[in-house]
Design a protein that fits this description.
By secondary structure, the chain is α/β, with parallel strands linked by helices. Helix content is about 55%, strand content about 15%. The protein is built from 18 helices and ten strands.
Length: about 375
Amino acid sequence: MKYYSQCKLIDMVENYIKREKTFFKIGRYRIEFIDRVDEIKKLMEWIDTGAPFIYFIYGPEGCGKTALLSHFLNIVGDDIIPIYINAIERSNPESALISPNILKIKNIIKDVVGESGGFIGPALAQGVIAVIDKVSSIVRLKDKCLAIMIDDVVQSIGLGKIEGYIKWLYESMPKISEKYGLKSITMIATTSEGISRRLIERHAYSITYLIWNLLKGDYIRLAEQLDPINKNIIEETWRLTGGNPRTLIQIALAYKWNIEKWLEGIEERLNETIIKIRSLKLEKELQKIIENIDIIYLKPDKNIFKLREILEKENLIIYKYKTTLRETRIKENREIGIGKYYAWQIPAYMKILESKYNNSKSRL
């Protein structure tokens, strides 16, 4: 079996990504996977290093965490055994557990889920050690690099249990490595839940990285594959989505590029949040956050913190003063709601809440 130095391994990955295109089927479209070379290289570094920590990737809903892991599955070599678990999948075995090295996936799911019961994804996440054990009976794990990727883990496990779950994974790593004679074991978990980041970062056994929406050039490349009605609409959706790929796909496919209808849907979703903000008399704090989202960090008080909890819980804002998988910081861009420390998950949330606030103010 060949082992490569980290530099050579990363170069091989980069050359492969540049040479081989990966496509996803979305509706009637065949969409090319856009960029993420640096993020893929970072995942490969983690596996090559085999550091005994839980890598926790978080970012805006729909920013491409699942697509990144899915793409990664397609490019690993024979020395790496990747196991991907979609922790929120309820019934589809083909999307709940994926590993290109293993053909008998359904047998593994049947054995593990049959033992624990319940929905497929949560059962696999809770029974990840049993999954590894079943895998070991099908493929040779000795002297291999094992990469476990658990997607949307917080939504599946729950905020109240996520700290205990991550600690359990961490404490299991050396036992798994010794039992199967692994070259290395890497545990990666993802979430879009902002509150979970604070819980996880209280512990030294996890390392948190941020993943963000697409850069503008990559966003345009994706939009052009979705039959936009004109070039201007791509720019308009950029200002409303901030480069969020899932939101772009939703506008194109579910709303057929009808931005007004899409915004109406978001407004309907935000109505209950607006009612809650009004009931707690936090309208002034909302206006302050709309004007400068970094006031949460720069001038915190009890009411600002109370509103932050609401906005984070509803996945409307996200803390962003973190190193990204690209080893960079996300630049400030006030036009699309990105501050130095915090950002709106998509700019449309900021714009709709601002409109609602101004309308209610004018009626007083």
